[in-house]
Amino acid sequence: MALQYMKKTNTSDRSSIEIEDSDVRFSDNFSSQDPSLELSTAEIEIIKYFVHLTKALGLPKSIGEIYGLLFCSPKSLTIPEIMKHLNISKGSTSQGLRFLGNINAINISKKIGIRSDFYSAEVSLRKLLNGFLDEQIEPHLKNGHKRISEISEVVDGLTSEKKNFLKDRVKTIQTWNNKGHDLIPLLVEIVGSK
Amino acid sequence: MALQYMKKTNTSDRSSIEIEDSDVRFSDNFSSQDPSLELSTAEIEIIKYFVHLTKALGLPKSIGEIYGLLFCSPKSLTIPEIMKHLNISKGSTSQGLRFLGNINAINISKKIGIRSDFYSAEVSLRKLLNGFLDEQIEPHLKNGHKRISEISEVVDGLTSEKKNFLKDRVKTIQTWNNKGHDLIPLLVEIVGSK
DNA sequence: AACAAAGGTCAAGAATTTTTGAAAATAATT
DNA sequence: AATTATTTTCAAAAATTCTTGACCTTTGTT
Q1: What chain A residue is nearest to B128 in terms of C-alpha separation?
Q2: For the residues A117-145, what does the mean pLDDT come to?
Q3: What Cα–Cα distance (Å) separates residue B190 from each residue in A88, A180, B23, B180?
Q4: Over 50: is that where the pLDDT of A31 sits?
Q5: What phi and psi, each to the nearest 5 degrees, are found at residue A89?
Q6: Taking CB atoms and an 8 Å cutoff, what residues of chain A touch B98?
Q7: Pairing of β A106-111 and β A114-121
Q8: Contact B7 A102 (CB under 8 A)
Q9: How many CA atoms, within 13 angstroms, populate the side-chain half-sphere of residue B94?
Q10: E-assigned strands of chain B?
């Protein structure tokens, strides 16, 4: 569950965040690996922070792990390195990097004489926010706009006594969608103002 | 998957939204019910819109169904009515309403002489946004703040050459968190104006 | 006080999403 | 063009999340 939708109504004041990060793969079965790949407690905690964040956004843990690892790394890393550091599969690594690439949360570079791609974390909040909004939110709004138009037509064809009520409701959703749309560039300006 | 994290990189320009709403329970097995409970195509489409939205937010379908139904209803409804209209279980209905209640997306009222609670959709964008941010986002930021402080202490205790690099990174996360925190009231003002 | 209707709880099952890893595709080198 | 390193794909397994419904509590009625 990405967002907390099961909050108890009467359970005193228990901490309101529900995501558990008890079982972090790499902290469990990592000791027997090449020590040069070992992550410090500090790094593990930072990675957990990003896992928490991605889970809150409804995204898989592996994405938070990958971004977190890159965020902690002064030098850019290759796919095999990421896999070994985090002890995750090639598939997860590849898909996670694709997602992060799509939202411009990582930078990809090459080094002369080395075939692999090198990945590093993008840390500009403006770029991160912009990528996330453009790739993840704006398509939803665009799609929503289309859907609402279709709904509007269906409602216009109604003859029941509910027609006017529903017309009004459709107008409400339309307004919401427009506001959301207008908000995107504003958000980038406000939050991303360096 | 709440947000699209599997977008193909090279699949021409296929529509970027991935959520399917092919199987909407109540449109499938609803015809054999009491006709007074029957939903029109328009209503079903509006409910699908909200299902789509809740899925995009990483929330269960039932929550979108319940909110959508209430949104389409000129009069407030009881739990048994909601269950029958949507053909969902008591558990889902109860939990869904609790979630919606927590974020102030619904209003609960009583009618004299009737035991049941009556539920209706809150349609003020300001209230909806405020409730969602306060109940779902702000606790995450608060928790994040705590986590970052803890991480900061761990990093301060470091002696490795990475210490300064990680200190800098922690500072970056701190800034992000603060900006997010400052943004909440601003968002409500901007979007919820009127 | 017994009954009935409404609402809540939560373990188990169903449905969905994520991860894995073998196989295919791509790209660089000899 | 054959070889090898790197990356992508995708079906199946694993993990997680959602829904159900039997049981329990609460509230109001007779």
Answers
A1: A176
A2: 96
A3: 42, 10, 36, 15
A4: no
A5: -75, 165
A6: 6-7, 9
A7: antiparallel
A8: yes
A9: 6
A10: 106-111, 114-121
Q: Give the CA B90 to C1' C1 distance in Å.
A: 29
CA of B91 to C1' of D24 (A): 13
- Token look-up 């009004």 returns A168
CA distance A136 to A39: 31
B169 vs A72: CB contact, 8 Å cut-off?
yes
Strand C contacts in A 53-82 (CB under 7 A): 58-63
Helix (H, G, I), strand (E, B) or coil at B77: strand
Q: Report whether B137 contacts B163 (CB < 8 A).
A: no
Could you list the mean pLDDT of each consecutive 10-residue stretch along chain B, which spans 194 residues?
Answer: 52 38 49 64 97 95 98 97 97 98 97 94 97 95 97 96 97 97 94 79
Say if the Cβ atoms of A2 and B1 lie within 8 Å: no
Task: With CB atoms and an 8 Å threshold, state whether A169 touches B41.
Answer: no
Residue whose token pair is 């095999």: A80
B150 at the A interface (CB within 8 A)?
A: yes
In chain A the first and final C-alpha atoms are separated, in Å, by: 33
Q: What is the pLDDT of residue A193?
A: 79
Contact B37, B84 (CB under 8 A): yes
Which chain D positions have some atom within 7 A of a protein CB?
5-11, 16-23, 27-29
Tokens of A129: 């926010």
In contact, B180 and B142? CB cutoff 8 Å:
no
CB B105 within 8 A of CB B131: yes
